[in-house]
Design a protein that fits this description.
The chain has 610 residues and is an alpha/beta fold. Helix content is 47%, strand content 9%. It is built from 28 helices and 12 strands. It has helices at residues 3-11, 28-40, 54-57, 95-106, 153-158, 171-175, 179-183, 185-188, 195-210, 224-237, 243-254, 259-271, 281-291, 306-314, 316-332, 346-355, 369-384, 393-407, 414-423, 432-439, 446-455, 478-483, 495-505, 516-522, 527-534, 538-547, 561-579, 596-603, and strands spanning 15-18, 46-52, 62-63, 68-70, 88-93, 108-110, 128-132, 148-151, 167-169, 215-219, 465-469, 511-515. The strands form 4 sheets. A 5-stranded mixed sheet has the order 3-1-5-2-10. A 3-stranded antiparallel sheet has the order 8-7-9. The protein has a two-stranded parallel ribbon with strand order 4-6. Helix 2 crosses helix 4 (95-106), helix 13 (281-291) runs parallel beside helix 16 (346-355) and helix 18 packs antiparallel against helix 19. The longest helix is centred in the C-terminal third of the chain and has 19 residues, at 561-579. The radius of gyration is 28 Å and the shape is globular. The model is unreliable at 236-242 and 590-596 (pLDDT under 50).
């Protein structure tokens, strides 16, 4: 079946999704990659479908394919009413690929602008998929040959005068079903004299309308239990062979010792550090490539050469020691598997340790305390700002390695590291959007600890500590609040007021980081009473309030909570601006052409999870 034929069946609701399918989860870069594969004539995989008889349709719920996806307000597939007088075909395996083709050729993809506000619709502009008709893609980490990209109307206007780009909306190929319509496209876009552009248009049309590149294996039994069993087995029943598994097999073949045992053993050992971590083989293999100073650190077969494997094996013991010290540092910073939002932060820390030949004594020595605090601050801040360890990771890791190698022999080169990050669009600068994002973080979320540990560095995270509610969570009981009466006998709190109080209970302005023993003694006491008992001296009370950015008066009852909350929120804004500030001037990224990094980051926009 051709791609166009499949999409027409999707249009006509002849090709649908059963309710057992998960929703669409692919990122923009994955959509681009599937179109690159299509243009190359690569197979995009086989599909498993189920021909549903009319008598079975009424027993099941079905959905249509996503066409105009928005990460803000349109994530859910539409329910479709299927007539019970005809057969339909439901896709059991392959919906992510088919949906991506449907979005690229017929619809739109709206993802959040980098640094945008997650609760504002204007941060999620509508984007269509375009193909650059000028030529092939610049060199990039994804290995793409063709230059596809999701663009907004503003993006198109910004590149209108750029001679290196002629953006063609991919949807026009789907709409040009006949060869005659396709042949008119080059003239329409003023590229009729460009052999490259004409060839690209013809190639795309050929792959969409002519080549039967989609292969369906069809199940026609009407036994729903059997269909469910097939679906579960196809989607989760087997052991997934990851790319790192394949690369580890290559490494094992080229390593004189047992590479698989060495990597697995190191992963298990590192994950037992402190309160425990969840590092994967991928992270440790990537760390090996970085620490061994391999030029290209991408997960590519060409990087796992005999020479590179010999370098890893020769230095494996030293690299293992450096990784243990680095993970120990992360544990000292209060991090663990539950609080570490990006495993990749381990890699530059390990490289700094490895480059400086730092041992476990670095973690304890008074002489290195200031350097440790600098490193700790950078690690935590990089975990707070969204997207730092997402798109363009390999390029960022190479840049950080270069900076540490050239400037990190005697101390952690914080200013140079932050400058290199900012040049790659990974700035740690404090913006209004970041402050608002931080203030809405909640109790129990992984990023919340990184924020609290940064804002309140006086708490020694090597010892027992707790994330604590300033005003006890137990005092926000909805039923108890609803029973409270005003002096005239009417309810003291409306349902809306109670809902507002409860919604603020777990947010950052009502949270603090306390040493374990202090928190145990606090329990559910009123904050003002606990403070007076714990710190009888006025000077000690004032010092505690200042350390924790608390107002001069703590609330006694729920009646005082809103005034306390607003003052603490204002105090935290000041503390955030101080503790999260960058070091050194913000550089301006170069705009000369579309470099490998620029393309990688442009393609990966929208990939980072909120």
């Amino acid at each position: 079946m051709t791609i166009a034929a499949a999409l027409r069946q999707i249009q006509e609701h002849k090709l649908i999704l059963p309710a057992i399918q998960r929703e669409y989860v692919w990122k923009p870069s994955q959509v681009v990659r599937v179109f690159d594969s299509v243009m190359r004539g690569y197979p995009v995989g086989s599909f498993l479908s189920w021909r549903v008889a009319p008598e079975t349709i009424s027993k099941f719920k079905f959905y249509g394919f996503m066409k105009d996806y928005s990460a803000f307000n349109n994530r859910h597939n539409p329910v479709v009413d299927i007539p019970t007088d005809r057969e339909v075909v439901a896709v059991l395996d392959g919906q992510q690929r088919l949906t991506s083709l449907n979005i690229g050729l017929r619809g739109t993809y709206a993802y959040k602008n980098h640094g945008g506000w997650s609760n504002k619709a204007w941060s999620y502009p509508e984007r269509r998929l375009y193909l650059n008709l000028i030529g092939e893609a610049p060199e990039n980490e994804l290995g793409l040959k063709y230059h596809f990209q999701f663009l907004t109307k503003l993006d198109l206007e910004a590149t209108a005068e750029d001679d290196t780009k002629m953006w063609f909306p991919v949807c026009e190929i789907f709409e040009s079903a006949e060869p005659a319509a396709m042949m008119q496209i080059p003239a329409k876009y003023g590229v009729g004299n460009s052999e490259t552009a004409v060839a690209l248009i013809a190639k795309l049309w050929q792959e969409i309308h002519h080549n039967a590149s989609l292969h369906f294996y069809e199940e026609d039994v009407q036994d729903i239990e059997r269909v469910l069993d097939i679906f579960v087995r196809v989607n989760s029943g087997g052991t997934v062979l990851s790319y790192s598994d394949l690369l580890l097999s290559i490494a094992t073949a080229q390593w004189e010792g047992d590479a698989r045992a060495a990597v697995h053993g190191l992963v298990d050992s590192l994950n037992q550090t402190g309160m425990g971590f969840n590092f994967s083989r991928d992270t440790i293999l990537k760390s090996g490539l970085v620490l061994a100073d391999v030029g290209d650190i991408g997960f590519k077969v060409k990087n796992f050469t005999t020479a590179n494997m010999a370098r890893l094996e020769f230095d494996w013991d030293a690299m293992s020691t450096s990784l243990h010290v680095a993970v120990g540092l992360l544990s000292d910073f209060g991090l663990s598997g539950g609080a570490l939002t990006a495993d990749s932060v381990l890699i530059p820390v390990a490289y700094y340790v490895h480059h400086g030949k730092l041992g476990h004594s670095y973690r304890e020595s008074p002489n290195t305390r200031e350097d440790r605090e600098t490193l700790r601050s950078w690690v935590l801040r990089s975990l707070i700002v969204r997207g730092i360890w997402g798109s363009g990771l390999d390029t960022l890791l190479r840049d950080l390695r270069d900076v540490i190698k050239s400037q990190g022999s005697s101390s952690f080169p914080l200013a140079a590291v932050e400058r290199a990050m900012a040049l790659r669009g990974k700035s740690l600068a404090v913006t209004d959007a970041l402050i608002e994002d931080v203030l809405t973080l909640e109790y129990g979320k992984a990023r919340t600890f990184a924020v609290l540990a940064t804002l309140f560095p006086h708490v020694d995270t090597r010892n027992l500590f707790h994330i604590d509610h300033v005003f006890p969570a137990a005092r926000f009981d909805k039923k108890a609040l609803a029973k409270q009466k005003a002096d005239d006998g009417t309810p003291k709190f409306s349902a809306e007021h109670i809902a507002e109080l409860v919604s603020l209970r777990d947010t950052l302005p009502n949270l603090q980081l306390l040493p374990g023993l202090e928190n145990i003694g606090k329990s559910h006491k009123a904050p003002d009473e606990w403070l007076a008992a714990e710190y009888p001296s006025p000077d000690d009370r004032s010092a505690f309030l200042a350390r924790n950015a608390l107002p001069s008066t703590l609330p006694h009852s729920i009646d005082d909570f809103m005034a306390f909350y607003e003052q603490r929120r204002a105090n935290l804004v000041t503390r955030i601006q101080d503790k999260l500030r960058t070091h050194g001037p913000e550089p301006t990224p170069s705009s000369e052409g579309l470099s490998e990094v620029a393309l990688d980051e442009a393609l990966a926009q929208g990939d980072d999870e909120d």
